[in-house]
Specification:
Elements (H helix, E strand, L loop, with lengths): L16 H7 L1 H19 L10 E2 L10 E2 L3 H7 L2 H20 L2 H12 L3 H12 L6 H12 L4 H8 L14 H26 L3 H9 L4 H26 L6 H11 L1 H4 L2 H10 L4 H28 L9
Antiparallel strand pairs: 1-2
Helix pairs in contact: 3-15, 4-9, 5-9, 6-9, 9-11, 11-15, 14-15
Length: 315
Amino acid sequence: MSTARAERPAGPVRSNWRIRLRRDRSLLLMTAPAVVLLLVFGYVPLFGVVTAFQEYDPLVGVMQSQWVGLDQFDRLLGDPLFWDAMQNTVYLSFVQLILFFPVPIALALMLNSVLSERLRNFVQSVVYLPHFFSWVLALTIFQQMLGGAGALNHFLRQHDIGTWDIMSDPDTFALLVTSQAIWKEAGWGIIVFLAALSAINSELYEAAAADGAGRMRRMWHITLPGLRGVIVLMLVLRLGNALSVGFEQFLIQREAVGRDAADVLDTFSFYYGIATGDYSYGAAAGLFKSVLSLLLIWGANRLAHAFGEDGLYRK
């Protein structure tokens, strides 16, 4: 009995890598500077992590420095100053997560409800602007407004009311740095949420309005569910970056409010590592923070998957 071999349907012809390279050369040229910057400032410095396991001496270099294993981490975990910085970092991260994270969402919802495109563009430009200020300029503005000789205390003195130097008060430092972060970064943070709002099908709003749903019901049943995936994604990223509460912001204000209130993990690595020449100790503190951040983002992503969301990637 003869059997006829079935002919396979001709599949799509795959272009080789040279053809794809020629086809996508414009895109590759556009991304090349970003890739180079990422390699130089993101991946090449990772080789310096080995100094956390050494007694690093810059005069002899990494290859010749003495290997001490986990001694730097034993020293780190036994340092009360490190645990003070860890406590401050966790507390400030929690305060910023509760008070800062909802603000860009609320701003995006308000801007999306503005009907006048000219007014919307004006408000967007105004709230975006502080993001481009350096922390030195931003804190100078706060100092001029809330400092001991600032506008607020000048007003209080004119009305014979007791003054209050908020910029040097350690008891309200957490609220101060959170308000600074909101003023500077909340406007920039709405970009992703505005993009997600523009992707929601407008016919859903029209159908809901035809059924008699008011603005609040449309927001609750259409807008917020449409934003849920993006909110979860940004929350996962926020948790992964929770231990990096802002180096420059705290470095500039540390002397004003004191070490007990303003020392976080980043400033701890700088003051007790780089500034004192104890580079291995600072590298150990930075590596410890990076590992904790990795565990946080992994746990948050697993939690997002447990609630049926994509998180950083689709499971």
